[in-house]
Design a protein that fits this description.
InterPro entries: EME1/EME2_C (IPR042530), ERCC4_domain (IPR006166), Mms4/EME1/EME2 (IPR033310)
Family: Belongs to the EME1/MMS4 family.
Strand order of the largest sheet: 2-1-3-4-5-6
Number of domains: 3
Organism: Acinonyx jubatus (Cheetah)
Largest sheet: 6 strands, mixed
GO molecular function: crossover junction DNA endonuclease activity; DNA binding
Pfam family, one: EME1-MUS81_C
Mean pLDDT: 73
CATH class of the largest domain: Alpha Beta
Distance between the termini: 99 Å
CATH topology of the largest domain: Rossmann fold
Number of strands: 8
């Protein structure tokens, strides 16, 4: 026992593998052994040397002088055979394509592909910094570029790097654009004056060229304050207008005329006009529109599916139904409860007698007369508490359930009390 302890201590004091003293480890010597004449004496090995002298075979079996097994390194080129090529050329399955499409359509991913192009004329206003700061906080990219319409914003969308095949190509339409034109109150009122003086439908919108393929949205900042400051009672209290034409236009147009022009623009030109009081309000609208523009492909993809109202993997509420049909009885019970004046005990009685609507419809088909069908459920017993009077489903509810499952008229009223 003492020899084993001394041997273990000698092995613990031995230098670790990979140090300079173990350069000759491949020769089969123990790390604690040293050649005569080298640094140190043979006494440093202590009992370990005598242990190895008495029987090398036993020490090799006990792990005193075990050789390290050879290790095999696998390089990257080993996987470049036929199996590696087949793995690289493997076509993704339907489940992988659905996951890739869902990832590409996520709101945070979609917002990164949206860019807002800002016309340099917008930056001339002192409140433009609020707009740019709001876009930076949103995480949306913006670029200052000269636009076809002065003082306008343009939204563009880039395609993802890999377009999943399960998503229609029109969803990834990179050519889709939206415009927002910023107008001064004076410029907007001059255009409104032209629209209200035209007899019949307007041929063109004053601020937009007819050659444009897309009708932009229009935003006017501070129109309410401008109209109030140019009322006849406030003209002398405020600064004089720059031109007489602008003064006459502001005085002549009141809110009823402006509202009339807004309706005309929306009906005939399909142009939405946004009236905001400050740049802060405009910034909130631009951020909300950027989010809606980014999520538009996701909504289009959801509407293009067969059941757009049913989202895979989600359950909005109600009784959960599994693929094997578990839960359908609970749905049928809830459907009976939707009728007026139906208690849980009455619904239990109907579901116990007919566990599914199909079974009840088959029972209705076996009836010979209409009176027999409407009274089929009337005599079903309803479980009540101890000592309570026995109850039945009754003819009223039996008639309503019968009409619900057999009628073909969508205008029929099921409730007699309605």
């Amino acid at each position: 026992m003492s020899r084993g302890r001394n041997f273990f201590r000698a092995m613990v004091r031995a230098p670790p593998t990979g140090s300079r003293s173990t350069a000759a480890a491949g020769s089969g010597r123990c790390p604690a052994q040293r050649r005569p004449g080298s640094a140190g004496s043979q006494l440093e090995a202590g009992p370990a040397m005598s242990r190895t002298d008495t029987g090398r075979a036993g020490s090799s079996r006990r792990g005193g002088c075990l050789r390290r097994p050879p290790t095999w390194e696998v390089s990257d080129s080993d996987a470049e055979g036929p199996a590696g090529a087949e793995e690289g050329a493997r076509v993704p399955g339907p489940a992988e394509e659905r996951r890739a499409a869902a990832k590409a359509l996520r709101p945070e991913q979609a917002l990164r592909r949206v860019a807002v192009r800002v016309d340099p004329a917008v930056l001339e206003d002192a409140g433009a910094g609020i707009l740019l700061e709001a876009l930076s906080t949103l995480g949306c990219e913006y670029q200052v570029e000269t636009q076809r319409l002065a003082r306008s914003l343009r939204w563009t969308r880039a395609k993802p790097d890999s377009c999943p095949g399960t998503v229609p190509s029109e969803v990834w339409d990179a050519g889709e654009q939206d415009f927002l034109l910023l107008l001064e109150p004076e410029e907007f009122l001059q255009g409104v004056n032209q629209l209200t003086q035209t007899c019949g439908p307007p041929c063109s919108v004053p601020w937009i060229s007819p050659e444009g393929s897309t009708s932009p949205h229009v935003a006017v900042i501070g129109l309410d304050a401008y109209l109030w400051s140019h009322q006849p009672s406030n003209i002398h209290e405020t600064r004089q207008p720059e031109t007489a034409a602008v003064a006459r236009t502001a005085v002549a147009l009141s809110w009823p005329r402006v509202e009339e022009a807004l309706v005309l623009l929306q009906l005939w030109a399909h142009l939405d006009v946004l009236l905001v009081a400050s740049w802060q309000e405009l910034s909130r609208h631009v951020c909300a529109f950027s989010k809606a523009f980014a999520q538009r492909p996701r909504k289009q993809y959801r509407e293009s599916r067969a059941f757009s109202f049913c989202v895979a993997g989600r359950w909005a509420g109600g009784e959960r139904v599994a693929r094997d049909g578990t839960g359908l009885r609970g749905v049928w019970w809830r459907q009976i409860r939707q009728f007026n004046r139906v208690s849980p005990a009455v619904a239990d009685a109907v579901v116990t007698a007919f566990p599914s609507p199909r079974l009840l419809q088959q029972a209705y088909r076996t009836c010979n007369t209409e009176q027999e069908r409407t009274a089929l459920l009337a005599d079903l017993p309803v479980k009540t508490g101890d000592g309570a009077r026995p109850r039945r489903v009754g003819p009223d509810l039996a008639r309503r359930i019968c009409l619900f499952l057999t009628t073909t008229s969508p205008e029929l009223l099921l409730d007699l009390g309605s």
